[in-house]
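Researcher: We are triaging several targets before committing to wet-lab work. For this one, the compound of interest is pyridoxal-5'-phosphate. I'm pasting the protein sequence and the ligand SMILES. What I need is the predicted three-dimensional arrangement of the protein with the ligand bound, expressed as structure tokens, so it can go straight into our comparison scripts without reformatting.
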Amino acid sequence: MLRRQFLNRLGLGMGAAFLPASQALALGASGNSNPQNPANAGPISQGDWKALRDLFPLTRDYIQLATFLLASHPKPVADAINRHRQAFDENPADYWHSKYLTIDHDIAKSAADYMGGEPQCIALTDSTTMGLGLVYSGLKLNSGEEILQTTHDHYSTDMSLAHRAKRTSAKVRQVALYENAWQVDVDDVCQRLKAAIKPETRVFACTWVHSSTGVKLPIRAMADVIEEMNRTRNDNEQILFCVDGVHGFGIEDQDVSKLGCDFFIAGTHKWIFGPRGTGVIWGKETAWQRSEVVIPSFSASYEVWLGTIEQKQVPIGEHMTPGGFHSFEHRWALPEAFKLHRQLGKDNVQQRIHQLNTQTKQGLAKMSHIKLHTPMATQLSSGLVCFEVDGMHPEEVVKTLHSKGIIMSNTPYRKTYARFAPSLINNENEIEQALAQIKALA
Ligand SMILES: Cc1ncc(COP(=O)(O)O)c(C=O)c1O
């Protein structure tokens, strides 16, 4: 029946072909091959951060202030991965056949329920880097048209664009949106952006929250600048606004389809607590129309190749989802992470992370041997707190704190800073202990 459900969803109704005989062995409507192992242990109460912490197998030997790097799987996600893994190990062909035509849509639907936008406009990826690589490789540009990016972007944006430039001779230029992170100013950012856009600019690429400084860019205000410029441009000269949103996603209570950008690209294995090796790209329908596929999709588009349906019947997000077999037990468990965030409440999540971040920044700001680089304002920062300790290289700071039982990181940029990332798995007491160790470095 799966194929009929799938074709119905595409609006093709009855008369569709039936499943191959092997799929008659499919693992039941729920796809749960292991009914002894329920999907999760029941909803968590909003704001119960202690109960949330207990869902993670993270060692308690350390205070964890760098979990955003790569998620530890919370219990509902780990349980879902185990269920899928067991079913694959028992009967890979049947399990895959029982789900492959509908599961991408179901995952995109759970992503849209969390992040906003339509599921049809969401592509599934393995990471932020994969999403950035796909978008920046696939964008259609004519000769002489350029991509503008910022000097604050992560390696993954920089190199996706550099590789694109090398392959196709596309022009890429950079703009600095601020000189001093601590003093970043919305009007100044917008003026710098406006001044940097040239008649030949067709794409503006940036990063929502900078993992180099902790600055959160005012994406909505920047989108207003671009929208105003687009109003006086012809259809074929419109500027596309693309955002690496991986930091901020899983923190901010934001419908990304209302943020003002055309593409929002993020991994879901950082702040979202999704399975390692997962990510999403949301794009406006009009933005996807300006992109070419880079890696062929294995879902509905395969039917087009088989001659069963037409390309226009395939949702654009599915068409843009890179195909081939993946570590499906991870990808298919992603809805559990979105579900957990929705149970916690997006507003509670935002409030809690900013509360712990503010406690951290206020504590650091009182220390005379510390130079704080992240802005104090919650409107201009999110999740990450970057700073320097007088007379100590950031790597030495990280090493010293590790020896005291605190895991932090230093920013992986040419100019590196020490970095705390207070998150939902931390508490006020842990932040005070980390601050005390930083104070002791004076
Ligand atoms: C701003 C930013 N973008 C992209 C990445 C890469 O993310 P992923 O591991 O999901 O590819 C990172 C860090 O890992 C980052 O800090």
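Researcher: Any quick observations?
Model: The chain has two domains: 105-343, 345-439.
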